[in-house]
Design brief:
Layout lengths: L1 H11 L17 H45 L3 H28 L1 H6 L9 H16 L3 H7 L3 H22 L2
Helix pairs in contact: 1-2, 2-3, 2-6, 3-5
């Protein structure tokens, strides 16, 4: 997100500075100093906020569903646990779908915002978008497994995911 924001607002539109906390000369007066600092911090802060918003989808689903999953697990109600997981996954997909469609439909254009040579990364972007959609669709499965006292499965899944991540990085990173 940070690179996308820099590309659009600093490089393409030239509304904001590309990098740094100040221009070539640091203002001496407090008000110009503060205004320059704020102008230079817009992009990094916006990138952080956007990144955190996307992480918020999965984290919120886990936090909100956790107590309900615990109650259903304690009662041995597998049907209720499945219902909660389905609802959390569907909600996550609803929230992420607009950006996912953009990343899947026009990945070359999105990557091309960074320069023509980046358009070659369109397939990698599509793979990452699909992976994130799968992640969101499964919702708080890890929380459900922990609530059902199946922590060993969570450990195995996390280890397998780490291996897949390393292999995918080796294949996708030039």
């Amino acid at each position: 997100f940070a690179m996308l924001l820099v590309t659009i607002f600093a490089v393409q539109l030239r509304w904001l500075p590309v990098t740094g906390m100040f221009g070539f000369h640091k203002p001496e007066q407090p008000i110009p100093y503060l205004l320059t600092l704020l102008r230079h911090m817009i992009l990094p802060v916006a990138a952080l906020v956007l990144s955190l918003l996307f992480q918020l989808v999965n984290s919120s689903a886990a936090v909100m569903a956790g107590p309900h999953l615990a109650r259903a697990a304690a009662a041995g109600d597998a049907r209720q646990m499945k219902r909660i997981l389905l609802l959390a996954g569907l909600l996550g997909i609803d929230l992420c779908l607009p950006l996912a469609v953009l990343g899947l439909a026009v990945p070359g254009w999105l990557m091309g915002l960074f320069g023509p040579q980046f358009s070659a990364g369109a397939l990698a972007l599509q793979i990452l978008v699909l992976g994130q959609l799968v992640n969101v669709a499964f919702g708080p499965q890890g929380v459900a497994l922990v609530m059902a006292r199946r922590e060993g499965i969570v450990l195995k899944v996390e280890l397998a995911a780490g291996v897949v991540w390393v292999a995918a990085a080796a294949m996708l990173v030039p």
